[in-house]
Amino acid sequence: MPWPDIEALFVSLGAEVSEREGSRIGVFLFEEIKVFHRPHPKPDTDKGAVASVRKWLEQNGVTP
């Protein structure tokens, strides 16, 4: 899954996304901040990161 799609999903859910050190971003959503590593040089997110994002969203009532 391309990382820009994941960031767009966060924004569509009302998240505030901020740049952090290096290729990290902070995502403020569900009254908490999570820090994610933006993949590079390719924009494709690995399966483990997608699973982590999915789990966090599901824990907060967002389902596919």
Characterization of the model:
The structure is a single chain. With 64 residues, the protein is of the alpha+beta class. It has a domain at 1-38. It has two helices and three strands; from the N terminus they run H-E-E-E-H. It has helices at 3-12, 47-59; strands spanning 16-19, 24-29, 32-37. Strand 2 (24-29) and strand 3 (32-37) form a beta hairpin. It starts with a helix and ends in a 5-residue tail after the last helix. The mean pLDDT is 94.
The helix tally amounts to: 2
Provide the succession of SSEs. Answer: HEEEH
Structural class: alpha+beta
Round the mean pLDDT to the nearest integer and report it: 94
User: How many DSSP E strands?
Assistant: 3
Radius of gyration: 11 Å
Are there runs of 5+ residues with pLDDT below 50, and where? none
Helix content: 25-40%
Spatial strand sequence of the major β-sheet: 1-2-3
- Distance separating the two termini: 14 Å
- Report the biggest beta sheet as strand number plus sense, adding barrel if it closes: 3 strands, antiparallel
Percent strand equals: 25-35%
- Morphology: globular
Write the layout of secondary structure elements.
Blueprint: H1 3-12, E1 16-19, E2 24-29, E3 32-37, H2 47-59
Antiparallel strand pairs: 1-2, 2-3
Short description:
The chain has helices at residues 3-12, 47-59; strands spanning 16-19, 24-29, 32-37. The protein is α+β, with helices and mostly antiparallel strands and 64 residues long. The longest helix has 13 residues, at 47-59.
Supply the key terms:
64 residues; alpha+beta; 3-stranded antiparallel beta sheet; 2 helices; 3 strands
